[in-house]
Design a protein that fits this description.
18 strands, alpha/beta, about 190 residues
Length: about 190
C-alpha cells in the first residue's frame, strides 16, 4: 500500500495513477476512511463544533472556527481538501478531491454542488487509471445550487457561478457565468 504522502505527491503533481493492485488497495483504504467519517457526520445530529471536529479529521487538518457545512456531505478521499476562512458548504455537496480542491476565504457553496477533480483515460484498456487536476476557488466566490465543476478549473476571486451550471473552463474574477457548459454572462456590478 502507498503511504498517504506518496499518493498525494502523485495527485498534486498531476501524474496519472495507474490503477494496479497497490493503487487500488490504497484508494480503497482512504475511501473507506472517508466513508466512516462522513457516515458519522451525516447520520447523527452534531452541533457546529462537533461538525468542525469531524471535518478536520476528514481532511487531516484543522478547519477555522467560522467554517460551516450542512450535512449531508460526501467525499471519496478527503485528504486533499484545503479550506480558507469563513467557508460555507450547503447540504448535499459531493467532493471528489483526489486532484486537490482549494477553496479561498469567504466562499459560499450552494446545495448539491459537485467538485470533480479526476478524469479517466479515453483508452478503454486504461480507463481505470486516474488522471487528477485541481479545482481552485478564489476568495469571495459564490457557487449556486446544483453546479458541477470539473477537474483543472480555476474560479477567479469574486465570481458567481449560476445555479445548475457545468463549469468546464476557468472563470475570470468578478464575473457571472452560467449554463451548460458555463459561459460568461456579465461582469459583477461593484457599486
Amino acid at each position: 500500500m502507498l503511504e498517504l504522502d506518496e499518493l498525494l505527491a502523485i495527485f498534486n503533481e498531476e501524474k496519472t495513477l495507474t490503477m494496479d493492485e497497490e493503487a487500488a488497495l490504497t484508494c480503497n483504504y482512504y475511501s473507506q476512511e472517508a466513508q466512516k467519517i462522513t457516515c458519522e457526520l451525516n447520520n447523527k445530529y452534531h452541533d457546529f463544533d462537533e461538525i468542525r471536529e469531524l471535518f478536520s479529521k476528514l481532511i487531516g487538518k484543522q478547519v477555522s472556527d467560522d467554517f460551516r457545512v450542512f450535512p449531508p456531505f460526501t467525499t471519496d478521499f478527503g485528504k486533499n481538501i484545503h479550506l480558507g476562512k469563513n467557508v460555507f458548504i450547503n447540504s448535499g455537496c459531493r467532493f471528489q478531491d483526489q486532484g486537490g480542491i482549494y477553496i479561498g476565504d469567504n466562499v459560499l457553496v450552494g446545495h448539491n454542488v459537485v467538485l470533480a477533480t479526476l478524469n479517466h483515460d479515453e483508452n478503454p484498456k486504461k480507463r481505470g487509471n486516474l488522471i487528477p487536476a485541481p479545482i481552485k476557488i478564489g476568495n469571495d466566490v459564490w457557487i449556486g445550487s446544483n453546479v458541477t465543476i470539473l477537474s483543472g478549473v480555476t474560479i477567479g476571486e469574486g465570481a458567481i457561478v449560476a445555479a445548475g451550471a457545468v463549469v468546464t473552463k476557468n472563470v475570470a474574477e468578478n464575473t457571472v457565468v452560467g449554463g451548460v457548459p458555463a459561459r460568461y454572462i456579465r461582469d459583477i456590478r461593484m457599486d
